[in-house]
Amino acid sequence: MGYDIGWIIPRLRNPGRLWHCASSITVAVVGLFSKIILEFLNKTTVYNRETLAAAVRRPRGQPLLTVSNHHSCFDDPGLWGVLDLASLTRPACMRWSLAAHDICFTNALHSCFFALGKCVPVVRGAGVHQPAMDFCVERLSRGEWVHIFPEGRVNVNKEHIRFKWGVGRLVADCSAAPLILPVWHEGMDAVLPNTEPYLLKFRKQVFLNVGEPIQIHHLLDKLRSANASEEETRAAITACIQDELLRLRDATRALMRRGAPLSARAPNGTAPQPERDSEL
Hints:
CATH class: Alpha Beta
Shape: globular
Structural class: alpha/beta
Protein name: Tafazzin family protein
Largest sheet: 7 strands, mixed
Strand content: 5-15%
CATH topology: Glycerol-3-phosphate (1)-acyltransferase
Family: Belongs to the taffazin family.
Domain Phospholipid/glycerol acyltransferase: 64-188
Subcellular location: Mitochondrion inner membrane; Mitochondrion outer membrane
Region (Disordered): 259-280
Number of domains: 1
């Protein structure tokens, strides 16, 4: 029987002063550590960095949902090392991230660390209406930032994995349409390989491409007008996000091949549609 994670989400909802203080320190320290690893000990090329910075500094109360591919266990928090120091040291503006309960929350020590770092334990296969998803919908509705890996697991072989419907639920059930920002990265699995002994590497090349916000309002209006069911709504939103993120993948790889400058904008590409499946 695995470790009981039942206490974590109630604690995140009602943190208390001591928990809040410890969480602030944890988020700041991990953020600074990620910055040292990504920008000082490895070589990271960031396309459209200003788009991510603007999203993090968005107007107060606007929900932010970031979505990205998942190639390494260091993707989160590592990717956010590209943010400026002001953002990294202000935990209130940093993301909430869904993390696998059977990997990150296996004992009391690990559970405290990841929970203090604003990670929420998600049970893979438990569906879109589990407590972790409810909590993230609440955070988005309060205008906070949530990050999700729609593939649902580390994609070790970098194959096509259909996106899970959980991302569709986050958008559909948020009280206001969130700002949805796609991020594609390459090279994080070289920084932290997916093979033992799972040690961080240095002097590796990482590419990070921040796409333009995904325009979802017209789709939401269309779904409401058609009285679409919850499943139809989640499927359609997930399909839209998958299409845009995989389009960004193609654009990122094109930029890498050309050795484009950091200010380059990503061209459009094509991507397959996701399979229909209600499992998170």
